[in-house]
């Protein structure tokens, strides 16, 4: 499998650190508002990449943070007259709802910056000890960028050129040694959340958060670090400087960056005000359409959001879903018994589409071509599947379509949602079974519920349940 690595500006063969396992970190959103569909792009494309890795049999440790302490969060809290923690908790919840609606799998861990302060203090201390960081008179701790010889290797910038061109980065009153020194720890301002530290009461800079969370949950060297291309500089460049200066080891082997979601060929962003939230889009479209639209382009290409392209995604998706539905209906009433020789042959042909799909995904996660392979399979199904076929044949085609759509995160068969009343009924039945010492039946009910995403907890007060 090939991945385009921003670090080397080349497509490279993917070789994981540990066979069969992938350690992947994706920079998550700053939570002070509902996410817009630009923020959803990295979530969707890297979730799809993760799904493909899992399809290939890799065990993926997928970590994606929430930045829950930041100027924007603090401003929003001050505007509303509430605690910053209330704002971040609210928008983390909302973001998780959007992710679920987009069929983005939850990460293995979603660390919160505010829960990892101890690790940040540790890393900053070690950088100071090694001479890579210093405390200014006002208590701010800066990274001494000039000390890190490889600074600029990700963004392919040269520090001297940067310094010559950006003298203005040193704002009056700042006590940093050089313009490109960046903040690791900053002193508290009135009314801001703050933590004790050896330097001053204050809070961490944004870049150190990701270095620390990546190290804690994935180790000092990871396979893949990802995010939007606006993060290459300075965020990811600074993460590399901090992590590699602290550990003396390479931070991440592969750096993947998605292109922008644009509107009228300008980046969609909160600051430009040219954005749609995922919630707004949800009112007009099934969010599967948004997901399919995002995957219609290569993840590194810019993608222009337009009603026309969304309509094209909608009709493409409908074609897939209709084929899946027909196939399911045919399968249910198909002929029993073994596949015919002709069907066996057709199955072999159908495998070609799977191969095409894989070839596309192996080539730097080319979801656009992978989608075309799915359309070819759909066409093949529409031409070759009928009521005259065996259940076995129709089932095989259905499974193939299902598996490929699942990699793209497209749901072709919605699981029926279980109602609260039915859950309660099953829990009662389980209690009865236990009373009658029919533990096998009790376990069976628990498993059935688990399969539907319902988790039971036996407490002293009785059984409680929640949806996973
Ligand atoms: P932020 O909350 O701005 O830090 O963004 C969270 C993630 O969304 C980062 O990976 C950004 O690079 C990404 N992102 C923000 N805006 C866009 C956009 N218009 N297109 C693609 N990715 C974006
Ligand atoms: Zn980050």
Describe this structure in words.
The chain is of the alpha/beta class and 468 residues long. Helices cover 48% and strands 15% of the residues. The protein has helices at residues 37-55, 71-80, 84-101, 117-129, 159-165, 206-218, 232-247, 278-284, 287-294, 307-332, 341-362, 367-384, 391-408, 420-435, 439-451; strands at 2-5, 10-13, 21-26, 59-64, 133-135, 141-143, 182-187, 202-204, 222-228, 252-258, 261-263, 266-267, 303-304, 454-459, 462-467. The strands form five sheets. It has a four-stranded parallel sheet with strand order 4-3-9-10, sandwiched between helices. Helix 4 (117-129) crosses helix 6 and helix 6 packs across helix 7 (232-247). The mean pLDDT is 95. Zinc ion (ZN) binds next to loops.
Write a compact overview of the structure shown.
48% of the residues lie in helices and 15% in strands. It contains 15 helices and 15 strands.
